[in-house]
Write a structure and sequence with these properties.
Number of domains: 3
Distance between the termini: 27 Å
Keywords: 4Fe-4S, Iron, Iron-sulfur, Metal-binding, Oxidoreductase
CATH architecture of the largest domain: 4-Layer Sandwich
CATH superfamily of the largest domain: Aldehyde ferredoxin oxidoreductase, N-terminal domain
Structural class: alpha+beta
Strand content: 5-15%
Helix content: 25-40%
Cofactor: [4Fe-4S] cluster; tungstopterin
Shape: globular
Oligomer: single chain
Protein name: Aldehyde ferredoxin oxidoreductase N-terminal domain-containing protein
Radius of gyration: 22 Å
Number of strands: 16
Family: Belongs to the AOR/FOR family.
Strand order of the largest sheet: 2-1-6-3-4-5
CATH class of the largest domain: Alpha Beta
Pfam family, one: AFOR_N
């Protein structure tokens, strides 16, 4: 009997309306382990060379990992893989929440989707069965409204929904896949791929919990994680979430500001994690943020997700659309010279409502703002909107216009690199992209090995494809577990730091392939180090894997 995985992969041909089930052998699961590696296997195997990313021939893989759905922190992640409409290269995006675990419970480890439906449909996976259903009544709805409709239609409030919003339907090149109305498989435009297939949503429900080979060992690992939240610093991470990184980034000169023209923002304290926690999380008026302003993913004890709610004013925002991460605060905030936290919260909600990557969206707007500042864009281009640095009103307006492909938003919906090709006039001089994807919120000048990852990563600039430079010296004992024994200063740029970048890239790739959370499993600040990652995998699967084999999975991907 398989432990940790169902042994079933669902194949969906939308053109023909056909669904088939593959039952791979154990060797397949041990070779790829799930997630990014499994998804890449199917995409490379089944996608014809040279196709347009928005054509029916593009294959979209949605994959869990061999520990997904087990009751331990950090395991409920889903990887989406396809050719990216933003970069033209391989696309890869991770997302958490409850959908990944529920998909495993529905009886399937992965879904491989090809073709294009002649009309909008959704995929309904439940209790080991699957079917395509009409989604004409859902097309055009925001994520929150569509999820409400599906729960009513299926008469089950416990379903989980992975869907596109109007941005995906409109083929915005950085459209995201959204679950829970606030969790995003954000990067590389996987929402546009799903939209090009007329697939509105994947809906899952089930009770098929994965079996665990060594339940007592697993239980001890689970207890260890809960008991060591404070010792590992995860209690503070849970309290302030990723926005807690804002101040330290600014202190090190690593907070991208005014489209990467500076690494410090003089108003950073107005948009940092402490301000978000104290003044903006739901329940802050009654000092009940921990109860009402924090959320979590399936079976995770860290609770790092933000919940915000604005009841009145121009930036009114519903709690179901969550709250901003650090990257979102930076891209809509310091990138654009904006310190209005309510506006940033609202822009984040718009991206979750319409289904867009906050990083590419905010970064594309900040690029347009620099073009405006340099006289490369005028109100004639933008339809009268003054895209000035610091204008929260313009930033929020443009976010919605991008999602709807209205006015100048139609051009920005192509992403900054393709937009510069359309506009011309030297606007390409202000691009901050790699392979066409906008850079996340980390200045390459102060994270030099990360800058190499930005440049060489197959799916473009990505901040979770390796450990960041300060980690080598800060966590020497954990680094030794993956063969890194010569700690370097954080600003070093030498052969050893390139080795650090390569090895931690392999580990990060393995983490993505196992579909576990990069904030919970890793070789630096995370709750579980690399040795414990191996222990978790073996306890669940019954295998005898080691870190060498796991790193090889990451390198293979």
């Amino acid at each position: 009997m398989a432990n940790g995985y169902t042994g079933k992969v669902l194949h969906v041909n939308l053109t023909k309306g056909e669904l088939t089930v593959e039952e791979p052998e154990e060797k397949f699961y041990r070779t790829y382990m799930g997630g990014s590696a499994m998804g890449l296997h199917y995409v490379l195997k089944e996608t014809p060379t040279g196709i347009d990313a928005l054509s029916p021939d593009n294959v979209l893989a949605l994959c869990t990992g061999v520990v997904t759905g087990t009751p331990i922190s950090g395991q409920s992640r889903l990887t989406s893989v396809a050719k990216s409409p933003l970069t033209g290269c391989i696309g890869d995006a991770q997302g958490g929440g409850y959908f990944p675990a529920e998909m495993k419970f529905s009886g399937f480890d992965a879904v491989i989707i090809k073709g294009k439906s002649p009309k909008p449909v959704y995929l309904w996976m439940h209790h080991g069965e699957a079917e395509l259903r009409d989604a004409g009544h859902l097309w055009g709805l925001t994520t929150g409204d569509a999820e409400d409709k599906l729960k009513e239609e299926l008469e089950d409030k416990r379903i989980e929904v992975l869907q596109i919003g109007p941005a995906g339907e409109n083929l915005v090149r950085f459209a995201a896949l959204i679950s829970m109305s606030n969790r995003a498989n954000g990067r590389t435009g996987m929402g546009a791929v799903m939209g090009s297939k007329n697939l509105k949503a994947v809906v899952v429900r089930g009770k098929q919990k994965p079996s665990i080979a060594h339940p007592e060992t697993f239980k001890e690992l689970q207890k260890w994680g809960t008991a060591n939240l404070e010792a590992t610093g995860m209690d503070g991470f849970g309290k302030y979430g990723t926005p807690g990184e804002t101040t330290s980034q600014n202190k090190d000169g690593g907070l991208p500001t005014y489209n990467f023209n500076s690494g410090t923002f003089d108003k950073h304290e107005e948009i940092d994690g402490i301000t978000l926690y104290n003044d903006h999380l739901r329940g802050h008026e009654r000092d009940e943020q921990n109860r009402f302003g924090r959320d979590t993913c399936f079976s995770c004890s860290v609770k790092c997700k933000r919940v915000t709610q604005i009841d009145e004013g121009p930036y009114k925002t519903e709690a179901k659309y969550g709250g901003p991460e650090y990257e979102t605060i930076a891209t809509f905030g310091s990138y654009c010279g904006i310190s209005n936290m309510d506006a940033i919260i609202h822009a984040n909600a718009l991206c979750n409502m319409y289904g867009m990557d906050t990083i590419s969206c905010g970064a594309t707007i900040s690029w347009a703002m620099e073009c405006w500042a340099e006289g490369k864009l005028t109100s004639e281009d933008t339809g009268g909107i003054e895209l000035k640095y610091g204008s929260a009103e313009a930033m929020v307006k443009m976010t919605e216009m991008i999602a709807k492909r209205e006015g100048f938003g139609k051009i920005l919906a192509e992403g900054s690199q393709k937009a510069s090709e359309i506009i011309g006039r030297g606007t390409e001089d202000y691009l901050i992209t790699s392979k066409g994807q906008e850079a996340p919120a980390h200045m390459p000048q102060v994270k030099r090995s990360l800058s190499v990852i930005y440049a060489t990563n197959p799916f473009g600039a990505d901040h979770e494809s390796s450990e960041h430079d300060p980690a080598y010296k800060a966590y020497p004992e954990r680094m030794e577990q993956i063969g890194l024994t010569n700690p370097q200063e954080k600003l070093a740029l030498n052969e050893e730091m390139m080795r650090f970048a390569m090895v931690t890239q392999h580990l990060s790739s393995a983490v993505d392939s196992l579909s576990v959370c990069a904030f919970i499993f890793g070789a630096s600040f995370q709750l579980y180090d690399a040795d414990k990652l191996v222990e978790v995998v073996n306890a669940v699967t019954g295998w005898d894997t080691d870190i060498t084999e796991i790193l090889a999975v990451g390198e293979r991907r």
